[in-house]
Write a structure and sequence with these properties.
With 253 residues, the protein is α/β, with parallel strands linked by helices. The protein has one domain: L-arginine/glycine Amidinotransferase, Chain A (5-stranded Propeller), CATH 3.75.10. It is built from five helices and 15 strands. The chain has a three-stranded mixed β-sheet with strand order 2-1-15, with helices on both faces. A three-stranded mixed β-sheet has the order 3-4-5, with helices on one face. The longest helix is centred in the N-terminal third of the chain and has 17 residues. The N and C termini lie close together (8 Å). The structure holds citrulline. The site of citrulline has 17 residues, from loops.
Length: 253
């Protein structure tokens, strides 16, 4: 069960955020409305939400998930792989210190975006992406070991982050799409394969029995509902324009 979430307000400079999508420039006003609805969805799932202020220095800072890996017991601040995002972590670390007595960090030469980290109980799958390198993964695995947890790496070649194409919905159920569909690492799970036309919905978020699903993906929403979850659709079109998915807008613990 999760009880808390941390989000970070989008800043006006988000229009200059990193992206490989060709979906146009985000509408900041609409992004604020969508962020507010996302926050409502977190609260509807029973979470107490705290929000870090916007920071115009960091266009991508609303994608807070990449900056820390957090459970109810511990927090690890990452070292984001993109130069323009590295400084996002200092305010996140300060905020996490209000929740945790000690906060560990990934240090150079490691880089790691927590969008590349998928928690399955006490095991963590770590995608080796353009943002997360082997040194970052090794550092995380060492820190996980100190907490009695384990980690293993997943090779990846196409997606921005591991959780761009995978979401763990607890109960051994995994959403899978694209390059991960045929990866034997995930054979152990009851996989729900996401239709390629709705690949964006592979990044959905389980919170206490409800699954937040990006709106406009009816096949995925139906499949997740049929698997026994309550579905709460959330519109995040303006964040998608920056390659952001639902999970990257919060830390949940
Ligand atoms: C970036 O490229 O870093 C941001 N524009 C999007 C980050 C999305 N994060 C995530 O999926 N975990």
């Amino acid at each position: 069960m999760f009880t808390k979430a941390i989000t970070r307000m989008p800043c006006e400079n988000m229009i200059h955020g990193l992206t490989s999508a060709s979906l146009g420039v985000p509408d900041f006003g609409l992004a604020l409305e969508q962020h507010a609805d996302y926050t409502s969805a977190l609260r509807e799932c029973g979470l107490t939400v705290s929000c870090i202020d916007a920071d115009e220095q960091f266009p991508d800072s609303t994608f807070i998930e990449d900056t820390a890996l957090v459970t109810s017991q511990w927090a690890i601040v990452t070292r984001p792989g993109a130069d323009s995002r590295r400084g996002e972590t200092s305010k996140v670390e300060r905020h996490l210190s209000t929740h945790f007595s000690s906060v560990k960090s990934i240090t150079a030469p490691g880089t790691l975006d927590a969008g590349d980290v998928m928690m399955v109980g006490r095991h963590f799958f770590i995608g080796l992406s353009d943002r997360t390198n082997q040194a970052g993964a090794n550092a995380l695995i060492a820190l996980l070991g100190e907490q009695g947890c384990t980690g293993s790496t997943v090779a990846m070649h196409e997606m921005l982050h591991l959780k761009t194409g995978l979401s763990y919905l607890e109960n051994n159920v995994l959403l899978v799409s694209g390059e991960f569909v045929s990866n034997p690492i995930f054979d152990q799970f009851d996989c729900i394969e996401i239709d390629p036309a709705e690949s964006y919905a592979a990044n959905s978020v389980w919170i206490n029995g409800t699954v937040l699903v990006p709106s406009g993906n009816p096949i995925a929403a139906r499949a997740i509902g049929a698997a026994g979850y309550t579905v709460r659709e959330v519109s995040v079109s303006e964040f998608r324009k920056l390659d952001g998915g639902l999970s990257c807008l919060s830390l949940r613990f």
